[in-house]
Description:
The structure holds two protein chains of two kinds.
Chain A: E1 3-6, E2 10-12, E3 18-25, E4 34-39, E5 46-51, E6 58-60, E7 68-73, E8 78-83, E9 92-101, E10 107-112, E11 116-120
Parallel strand pairs in A: 2-11
Antiparallel strand pairs in A: 1-3, 3-8, 4-5, 4-9, 5-6, 7-8, 9-10, 9-11
Chain B: E1 4-7, E2 10-13, E3 19-25, E4 33-37, E5 44-48, E6 52-53, E7 61-66, E8 69-74, E9 83-89, E10 96-97, E11 101-105
Parallel strand pairs in B: 2-11
Antiparallel strand pairs in B: 1-3, 3-8, 4-5, 4-9, 5-6, 7-8, 9-10, 9-11
Amino acid sequence: QVQLQQSGAELTKPGSSVKISCKASGYTFTSYDISWIKQRPGQALEWIGAINPGSGGTGYNEKFKGKATLTVDKSSSTAFMQLSSLTPEDTAVYYCARLDYGYTNEYYFDYWGQGVMVTVSS
Amino acid sequence: EIVLTQSPTTIAASPGEKVTITCRASSSVSYMYWYQQKSGASPKLWIYDTSKLASGVPNRFSGSGSGTSYSLTINTMETEDAATYYCQQWSSTPPTFGGGTKLELK
C-alpha cells in the first residue's frame, strides 16, 4: 500500500534552517510528483511546491520561493524540504503528499504523510 | 490566485440528518476536490474531479457543482463523518484550499 513516512517533530530557533523528509513506499517513486503543504492552526492549507522525483524538476508557490527548497534522493525514495531563515510564522505542520491526476489532467493530492510539526521559538 | 470560501465554517448535525457544505471560488474552476481531516490526523482525499468518491468513501457522500460554486453533501449524517472538510482547486496554479468546514455531531 502507498505510504509516505515523514520525519519527526522539529524544535528550532529563529534564523535557523530545518530539513524534513518524506519516505515513499508502495509505489514507483519516480512515477508521481510529491508536493509539500503547510498547515497552521486556524488557517487554510497552503501549497508550498512540488517536485518531480524522476527529473528533479520543481515548481514553487511564489510565496515560498526563497523559503523552501525541495529535493529528492531517488536511491532511498525520499523527498526532502529545507526551510530556511525560520521565523515564528513558519511554525506549522508540514505535510508531503503524492500528486495524481485523472482524465481531467488536473492534479490532486491522493496520499498524504502523517505531517511534521516544526516549532520555531527562541 | 483563486480564493476558495467555504460555508458554513462550522456546522452541527444529528445522525440521519442531511448536510451540505459549499465552496465558492473567486474565479471559475473546472473541477473541485475535497479532503476530510480528523483531529490530529492528516487530510484524506475524499472527493475528486468534483463528484467522484475516493476509495473507501461511503456512498452517502456526494459532490457536485460547476464554475464558481461547488458542494459536498452527506445524505444521512453518521457519527464517523464528524471532521473538518476542505475544498481545493488546481485549475489555476498555485493550487489553493478553502478555509475548512468543521462538521460536528449534534
